[in-house]
Amino acid sequence: MASLGRPLRFTRRMRCYIFGFCINVFLVCNILVHQTWTKWNSALVEKPDSWSRTAGKGSAQKTQGDNEYRVLVSRFRKLMENAVESSNFSSSENDESLELISNAQNGTLRFKNRSSEQLFNCQDIENITDKHYIGSGWTKAVYSGIISSKKVAMKTVDIGGQDVTNCVKWGQTLAECYYRAAQKIVKEIVLLQELEHRNLVKVLGYCIPEEQYNGDDVTLVSLITELGDTIDLIKLLPMSWEERLRISYDLTSLIHFFAHSPHGPVVMNDFRHQQFVLVNGMLKLTDVDDTGIGDPHCSTQADCNLHFSPSEFHAKIPCQNGHCVGLNEKKNIFNAGRHFIIFRLPYGAPPSLHPILYDVVSGFTNLTMSADRLLEQMQKAVHLYKTGHYLNRTQPVKTGHCLESNSESCG
């Protein structure tokens, strides 16, 4: 028996050694990956250095780029002239920027500042202080700062971003790449002015310099807006139900406005938490360069079939007079439901409000309500909660459903 015990103990010991070795290898690999990620992420965050490197590459093309940039920016600056109402806004979800930028280049797309406040100009923006990097995407970088004692957000072209660097790698001049990226900021300047709403960030100023970008702040195409707090899941989770109700109402109000925009139905093609900020507790959309205006064109009914992945949800939108009527509205409603409403609105709600809130959630997730009806129901829920009338109900009104399966109100 003793002779059999020794091999058994040896086998167990070897297994422990092998297991320990594997654990150590796993930990070492994780440390190496973490260090690599940290270095890579730091390189992305250090935006001024990346600007300088990219600007250095572009300096070799300066002679050719100067003339190109002056021609292109002269078209941009026509946007800054105060003129009559803008001309036609029209777009589909696939080419929403084409007509907008075309009109900008031709000088036919203009707008006026509808606010009584004076907008910050290039000189004001040049004197921005306390500038701090907030974040960036593929095309733009966002900073916080102070102008005339006012805290603001400044959005600029990210010269070190993927759009510009990839464009330069593909053989385009820095002027061409910068102009292409700046189109998105100009589009946001125009849209945020034209689509004025309480749940869209307010434009406080902008600058479209005459000089080609050379690494100096004074040559940045920039947009100045209200400064808000970024939104992510970590910030949303600990919010009180009242705060989540306010956010849900703000989002519903914005979707209703987009459905009835004076320029046509607006669609948010890139619907994410990162596109929104909270300004004094109010939800506001801050990124509108990926929006489209006008329902898409169609020739057959099949052109208007909506498919949402990965939920595998399908919806048939009518093709009428060559347009998918209501597609933009339905797309906004469904995306708002799965990104905000379904996970924020129901849980922790007063039991007496469950029936009306269930109808709202169902309207978002199953597209059973229009934007008009959703706003009407949300206004009703807010009124009942704000006035305290929901406390007068000892039992909720039965609708055959309940919001939470473990709620005592589910009968």
TrEMBL record:
Domain Protein kinase, first and last residues per copy: 128-411
UniProt protein name: Extracellular tyrosine-protein kinase PKDCC isoform X2
A single MF term (Gene Ontology): non-membrane spanning protein tyrosine kinase activity
InterPro entries per record: Kinase-like_dom_sf (IPR011009), PKDCC (IPR042983), Prot_kinase_dom (IPR000719)
Transmembrane intervals: 16-37
GO BP: any one term: skeletal system development
Presence of keyword Cell wall biogenesis/degradation: no
Organismal lineage: Eukaryota, Metazoa, Spiralia, Lophotrochozoa, Mollusca
Cellular component GO terms, alphabetical: extracellular region
Organism: Octopus sinensis
Keywords assigned: Kinase, Membrane, Transferase, Transmembrane, Transmembrane helix
